[in-house]
Amino acid sequence: MMEIRRCRKMTSKPFGVNLTLLPALQPPDYPAYARVIIEEGIRIVETAGNNPAPVIKQLKAADPPIIILHKCTTVRHALSAIKLGVDFLSIDGMECAGHVGETDITNFILLSRARQELNVPFIASGGFADGQGLAAALSLGAEGINMGTRFMCTIEAPIHQNIKESIVKAQETDTELVLRRWKNTSRMFSNKVARDAIKIERESPTGKFEEVAPYVSGKRGREVFLNGDPEHGVWTAGQVIGLIHDIPSCADLISRIEREALDTINKAKSLYVEELPESDMEGKPIQDSSANPTGEYGAVGSKVNNPQSEVWGIGKSKL
Amino acid sequence: MMEIRRCRKMTSKPFGVNLTLLPALQPPDYPAYARVIIEEGIRIVETAGNNPAPVIKQLKAADPPIIILHKCTTVRHALSAIKLGVDFLSIDGMECAGHVGETDITNFILLSRARQELNVPFIASGGFADGQGLAAALSLGAEGINMGTRFMCTIEAPIHQNIKESIVKAQETDTELVLRRWKNTSRMFSNKVARDAIKIERESPTGKFEEVAPYVSGKRGREVFLNGDPEHGVWTAGQVIGLIHDIPSCADLISRIEREALDTINKAKSLYVEELPESDMEGKPIQDSSANPTGEYGAVGSKVNNPQSEVWGIGKSKL
């Protein structure tokens, strides 16, 4: 409630609340969270995690019903969430930060599967930092992108400058998957704590969670963002850290992404050149590209002799 | 040499040869392979695998030098290959079939990293089956796509019909990563042999390759394609099997992909609507979108009042 009221003071614009339902020894009182969200007049909630049915039912029973964006890492869970009445989905590939799920399907596959199967709109999560990524997500069928790690690396993000700089310095290979053994796989920034946790996870003969618990403490993880010591605990980061090279303002970041996406789409569009009508050539039909006597390569879909055509590309590529 | 001559009989078009350099107890005579490739007048070679330097040197010493496409799963290896003189690269994300490498970077990240770092052109491998994927790959900076699993599922592919139908029936979750323990991780179709291999790999206290060797026999894997029994041995398949739903001819597949890619790019382009010049509105400049008195959401990059603008999207999205 405090955070909702704090956010309301900071902007006159609408905002959403995330409610992630995680397995825990002592689960938080999620119904109470949902009640506060409704009472505070929030209109959009992002749900994620296990067994969202009761919370979705509660939020949908509000008057008017709350708009629900559900985040998931499999098409199967997305289809279940649609049956529960969610309004749109956030499709989260295995490149993402935090909970990646247990199937390790990448966004190139997962977004296309979502396009093929889902009858509600979806946005793309996990792996996005720039306009080229936005253009690619739109190509695969998403309505937009969701960025977590990238926004951590902005001037406005309320985390320690050291952590922002750690992200800028990091490469795409500097993340680890921890807690797979307990089917709660999370992508974390690669530091000694995370690597020690994985070692215990792999080598412990008992497989008792208690052995790894001190290493994956959420409390110490949250302290990282305040004290600026990237080695203090485990903290989430996506593979996208490899694509992040600066710490802009949110406004600069968004307008850069917009410009990049537009340039990207225009460039892709420019690759396609209309085929000339066959009669424009020599007045006789040419059946297939094997009738092309001089082209070194047969162009994809080429029906006319075009010495500039290439092996790959669409239509008559200018590449 | 036999295969090169067989291929030459089947087409008058140029074709390339793949030379994958794998760790093996008794390595094949790769220099002899390269010699035959040169003698047969092949002009394009795709190299992949470990320690390609000697073979690349040999192929580049041919007169004229052979054009080399090198396939790799990390930016680091791509940069090394460029130093060795390769002409272009095939960037292979962890969703791919067969050798995925050991870093598990997905194509959304890896292609963007390639765009940021490489000064030679690259195509995208791993996870491609349709025109939406091609459009996304072009967006991320690739010059085109490379398809393996998708072409296995065409009328012309010289493999048993049962295997093609197994791919059509399979979901994106029906692959397994085997041989990670020996740093030779391969993505295989999920059958009992592959799952048994993984069980041994995980549970063997010795970690001796001999224990798993009978399960990952390449000979039995190749027999699968002839005898049509998907359970006979391990055989490679990418996560993209989840996107494959039919067995078209190659010509139909290619023209479908071309049409889908063009439609996809046109649709992405149509999402962007030019901002109206500010003077067209009320003759006075509007500093930022918070000055927008009526829009329920602030549009990304919006400078003018547009009640149809939305939270996500580029420019003034029509979504």
From TrEMBL, chains A, B:
Entry keywords, A to Z: Dioxygenase, Flavoprotein, FMN, Oxidoreductase
Q: Where is this region: Disordered?
A: 278-307
| GO terms for MF | dioxygenase activity; nitronate monooxygenase activity
Matching entries from InterPro entries are given as:
Aldolase_TIM (IPR013785), NMO (IPR004136)
Q: Which Pfam families match?
A: NMO (PF03060)
The lineage's top-level taxon is: Eukaryota
Q: Where are the transmembrane segments?
A: none
Name assigned to this protein: 2-nitropropane dioxygenase
